[in-house]
Design goal:
about 375 residues, Rossmann fold, seven-stranded parallel sheet, six-stranded parallel sheet, about 15% strand, 15 helices, Glyco_trans_1, alpha/beta, single chain, about 40% helix
Length: about 375
């Protein structure tokens, strides 16, 4: 049994937080002792955490202020490996590990396209973290664990990080027995009692996710009775609703908020769409594939091309092209659901917990 520590800012609604909750549970299931440490607070993903995972909350007012408390914790608690997640948390963890003498056991993780993600948050402290991180990544003893090959290559191509400074590990998106488990009943009324085709998307209501392009594409569909549901929270809710109104599709477009079980919603949909401008390794796309539901994705950096085998599993369209996106969605909805269904499910199988845990254990402990 190994003692493992995962360091996060909180357990909010982001994909990284959800994946670390799943990874913590999968690592425990594999026979390890796992602690999940939150720098600032808990969050919506906390109830999903395996009860066998020890929780530590530093309750810092902000991530950067958590360095002294994290340093004391690392000095007092010895782990075989420590994993920090997300760039600004990585910088905090590196500082605390260096001060506590545990840097040799620290691993950090990049979850998104670094060259794109660094422009999302304008806060000075975040910008400083993104400037500092690549320099630290050259100095720390262990390579940065990237969520996809594309993320690893982007970090090397656009910063001072070298190929030897990066490695990869897959997200634990799916239960090992996902093929045998029927999806739960959906919660959205358009899916519970379907009367027309329904398209589903999942993600933060942010510029990165390209939902403005999706709504534009939706308005162009020849299937005039179709409905669109975008599950997620974010700052662009008002703008997206205004766009739907301006395009005359507001009554057929709904933004109901966060979905606690997106697989249940996607499984009843006629098509799932990933309209992102950039990604790391889109978990929602894997979840959609696991249901067998037809999918369409943008050829964005990074992830969809790897997951969809460059379009062999499901259609890929160019980013910010609503006409092409509309055509692909329309074609998928016009194709019998059974066509390529097994191909989609097989593509998702790479991201089951048991396999992902092995990629992480190899990255963290240097073994298979």
């Amino acid at each position: 049994m190994k003692k493992l520590l995962i360091i996060l800012q909180d357990l909010g609604a982001g994909g990284a937080e959800k994946m670390m909750v799943r990874l913590a549970g999968a690592l425990v299931e594999a026979g390890n002792e796992v602690t999940l440490l939150m720098l600032t607070g808990a969050g919506i993903n906390q109830p999903a955490l395996d009860p066998r995972v020890r929780q530590v909350l530093l309750d810092s007012p902000r991530s950067a202020a958590a360095v002294p408390a994290l340093m004391r914790f690392l000095r007092s608690n010895r782990y075989d490996a420590q994993l920090a997640v997300l760039t600004h948390v990585n910088v905090v963890a590196i500082a605390a590990a260096a001060l506590s003498g545990t840097l040799a056991r620290l691993h950090v993780s990049e979850r998104n396209a670094f060259s794109r993600d660094k422009h999302v948050n304008p806060a000075l402290s975040v910008k400083l973290a993104y400037w500092l991180a690549p320099w630290l990544y050259r100095l720390i003893p262990n390579p940065v664990i990237c969520v996809s090959q594309g993320v690893a290559e982007d970090l090397v191509d656009t910063t001072i990080a070298r190929p030897r400074d990066v490695t990869t590990a897959d997200n634990p998106v799916l239960d090992n027995d996902f093929r045998d488990k029927p999806a739960a009943a959906p919660s959205h009324p358009w899916l519970k009692d379907k009367t027309t085709p329904v398209i589903v998307a999942v993600g933060r209501l942010a510029q990165q996710k390209g939902f403005d392009t999706l709504i534009d594409a939706f308005a162009r569909l020849p299937q005039g009775d179709a409905r669109l549901i975008i599950f997620g929270e974010g700052a662009l809710r008002g703008e997206l609703l205004a766009q739907a109104t301006a395009l005359g599709v507001a009554e057929r477009c709904d933004l109901p908020g966060y979905a606690s079980d997106p697989i249940a919603e996607i499984a009843r949909a006629d098509c799932f769409v990933l309209s992102s401008r950039f990604e790391g390794s889109p978990n929602a796309l894997v979840e959609a594939l696991s249901t067998g539901t037809p999918v369409v994705a943008t050829r964005c950096p990074y992830g969809p091309q790897e997951i969809l085998a460059d379009g062999a599993v499901a259609p890929l369209v160019e980013v910010d092209d609503p006409a092409a996106l509309a055509a692909a969605i329309s074609a998928q909805m016009a194709t019998p659901r059974a066509v390529h269904r097994q191909r989609r499910i097989d593509a998702a199988a790479r991201f089951v917990n048991a396999r992902a845990v092995q990629t992480y254990l190899k990255a963290l402990l240097g073994r298979r």
